[in-house]
Each structure stands twice: as C-alpha cells, then as structure tokens.
Amino acid sequence: MLSRRKLIKRLSSGTLVGGLVGGALPITVTAAPTAAPKRDLFKELGVRTFINAAGTLTYMTGSLMHDEVLEAIQNGAKEFCLLDEIQDKVGAKIAQMVHSEAAVVTSGAFSGMTLGLAGILTGMDLKKVEQLPHLTGTGMKTEVICQKAHDIVYNHALTNTGCKIIQVETAEDVEKAINEKTALMHFLHIEADKGKIMHEEWVALGKKHNIPTSIDIAADVPPVENLWRFNEMGFSFVVVSGGKAMRGPQSAGLLMGKKDIISAARLHMPPRGFNIGRGMKVNKEEILGMYVALERFINEDHGKVWKMWEDNTAHIESAVKTVSGVKTDVHVPPLGNHTPTLRISWDPDKLHLTGKELQEALRKGDPSIEVGGSGPSHIGVTVWMLKPGQEKIVARRIKEELSKAAV
Ligand SMILES: *Cc1c(COP(=O)(O)O)cnc(C)c1O
Question: Which residues on neighbouring strands pair with residue 164, listed in sequence order?
C-alpha cells in the first residue's frame, strides 16, 4: 500500500493517473500502481525469512532499511562520482549533525575502530600507512589501554593494526600502564557500568597524559543524543553501527572525531590500496544510504516511536499473560539496545516447555518468528524490529504455543 507521503510524491511527479480534483486525495488508494517485485529471491534460493522479535542482531541481518534509505541507494546507483569526493562531502555534513570535527562513513563500527586507531598510529605518513600491521622497528606506538571489563571480542578491530591490548582496572592502573608505546585508551560504552572508570574520568586521564581516547557505542542509539554526547565529552574518536537501530545499510557505520585522526584514517581507506583498510570498502550507495539513515534518525519523533514500542510490547504482554502460569516483565537496558525488552517466563510445573523449545516452535511455525534469548523457562522479545501489525502475529503465536504446553 502507498503511504500518504509517497502518494503525494507520486502525484507531484505526475506518475499517478489523473482524475483527482483540486488536490483532494481519493479515499481508496489501493488502485494505485504498485510494482510487484519480479523475483522473490528468498523463495527462489530457499532462504528462510522471519518476523524479527529478537532485536538488531548481526547474524539476523541487523535491521531493515527505511524506504528513504533504499531510495538513496537506488538513486545513488545510477551515477558515477569520485569516492573521495562523496566521502568528503557526506563526512562534512555528518560531522555537523553529530557535533564532531570530522566524520567518515565506514563499513561498520568495527572497521571504524581499526581505521581510527590506524590513523592515530600513522598520522599522515604514507610510509607508515604501508607498514601496518607491522609495527616493530617503525617507531609507531604499539599499545592500547582498555579496562578489563571492556576488553571484549570486538577489540580484535584494534589488534588488527598490530597493537596489543593492555588491560587495566583502576585509574592507578591506567597511570602505571601509560608509557611511550601507548597509542590509545579505548572505552566500551555498553559495559560502562562493569568497569571502575567512567567516561569523563577516562577522557580526563587521556587528556592529562596526552593520549587519545576512543569509545565504541556500536549498539547504543537510541537515545539519539549518544550520537553527539561522546564527541562533546572530548573522546578523540567515536564509532557507531549504521545497521542497527539507525536502520542504515548493515555494512555501514560512522567514525566520528578529531579532524587529524579522521584525515589520517582516510589514508587507510579505499580507493587507496596500500593499507590494511582496503578490504573495508564502503560504496557510494552505502555512503548515501548511511547519510540519509542518520538524518532520518536524528529528525525522527523519538517520543512517538517509544510510545509505539511500549504499546506493541504491552499488546504481546497482555495476550500471553492470559495463559495460566505465565508471567511477564519489561525492562529497558540502560546502556545499549535501549528499547523495551519483554521477558516472558512461566511456571515449569504448569507449562511443560523449555525456552529453547518455544524458540524452536516459533521458528518452525508459519510465519517463522525469531525471539530473543531463552532460558530454562523464559524467552525474550523486543518489538523494535517488527513491521507494523506483526506484534499481533507474535502475540498470537506465543500465546498459542504456551497454551499447548499447559498441563
Ligand atoms: C555490533 C557491535 C560492533 C560491530 O559493529 P558493526 O557495525 O557490525 O561493525 C562492535 N562493538 C559492539 C559493542 C557491537 O555491539
């Protein structure tokens, strides 16, 4: 069905057949020409598609791009331009939007970490750019300091440069760990509460010793303010995923930060090919798609979206609670994946079903549904990746399976 906006767009571009008087919109718009997709590639390939009640998970292909993003990608695909020029111009706009000195679209938050650190290590020295990831004998720094609780798998993005991670726990540890080999102090927002040092202190420690600081906020919008909060706080660079809640291309993200770092990071990026970042290519379509996704996300009515998430969560909650022995609660993770998160749990004496079995039943059902994590007698559900109306299907299917298990 055509949205009102699209209809208006089609009307103004003259592609819709006439017969409308004085701008009055017809009540039924279903007769408008809708181009049916010629091929259903998922079907053709036998790839299972599903309703995503789990979240913005990489292995479930992240999020669905908004129509505006798809439009940007489609239009972008029809012209040539210089890769550097489009990065320059989009980067300047993005920097304004996120209150940083500079920015660049990367192939995700992970590559943003690699490229940001690479830029710090080499500066604008092309010989050094070519030398990475081999640091020995080059005069480049070799160590990144990170709190133990923040040292997760994604730090491989940092060690890809040849650097090693030095774990610390206290501010005193940081002071001791800093030496002439220290390139960067890295922070992981989603685990901020698990470490002993919080953001401001981390930045202050870096400033005191003249060491750049970085932060990974990959999955940590909403709230939208996080896009500029850490740039304003003084982190030297910040990385975020484009293909999670922002609903840009899954293979895009943002590297934001100090001008000198971003300029140097660019030397490690395509079209240049003498560097560790050549395989982290972002095409012009993704660059434009990311730009539009960011713009749309910033301008979105976040209050309205939040209300919709709450309503849809409540709908599922009230449906499944009618099954005797079922309990629900909603919590909002404060640091990342910040969205109402429903936990549906049950009394194992009343319902003979494990979380895994329920997950599997929903997966195998028609339509297939993926839910979040499961435990012995609970599952998790989020609604932020649902298409309008899917909350009803999710509510009905979960209730059905729970009812079947009642003894
Ligand atoms: C998702 C994620 C990443 C990787 O982000 P991409 O945009 O997929 O490269 C890095 N760090 C954290 C904490 C993440 O959640």
Answer: 143
Q: What DSSP designation does 282 have? A: -
Interval 18-39: pLDDT, tens? 334 444 444 444 555 666 668 9
Q: Can you give the CATH number for the domain in which 121 is found?
A: 3.40.640.10
Distance 294 CA to ligand 1 centre (A): 17
Say how many Å lie between the CA of residue 312 and the centre of ligand 1.
27
Domain end point (choices 261, 282, 299): 299
List, in sequence order, every residue forming a beta bridge with 240; answer none if it has no partner: 254
The residue whose CA has the least distance to atom 14 of ligand 1 is: 218
Both structure tokens of 325: 């022995």
How many CB atoms sit inside 10 A of residue 63's CB?
23
Instruction: State yes or no: pLDDT of 233 exceeds 80.
Output: yes
Tell me, yes or no, whether 273 lies in a domain: yes
Whether residue 20 is contained in a domain is answered as no
Nearest CA-CA partner of 110 in 227, 203, 224, 188: 188
- State whether 324 and 285 are in the same domain: no
Sole residue written with tokens 């005069």? 139
Phi and psi dihedrals of 242, rounded to 5?
-90, -25
Of 241, 272, 299, the residue that ends a domain is 299
Question: DSSP character for 136?
Answer: T
- What's the whole-number average pLDDT of the chain? 93
Residue 13 lies in a domain: no
Strand order in the sheet with 164-168: 102-106, 253-257, 237-241, 213-216, 182-188, 143-147, 164-168
The 8-class DSSP code of residue 351 comes to: B
pTM comes to: 0.90
* 316 lies in the same domain as 240: no
Question: What pLDDT does 182 receive?
Answer: 98
241, 130: one domain: yes
CB distance 241 to ligand 1 below 6 Å = yes
Distance (angstroms) between ligand 1 centre and the Cα of 318 equals 33
- Give the count of beta carbons closer than 10 Å to the beta carbon of residue 93: 13
For 127-143, how does the pLDDT look when each residue is reduced to its tens digit (9 = 90+)? 999 999 999 999 999 99
Instruction: Say whether pLDDT at 9 is over 80.
Output: no
Question: What total number of domains does the chain contain?
Answer: 2
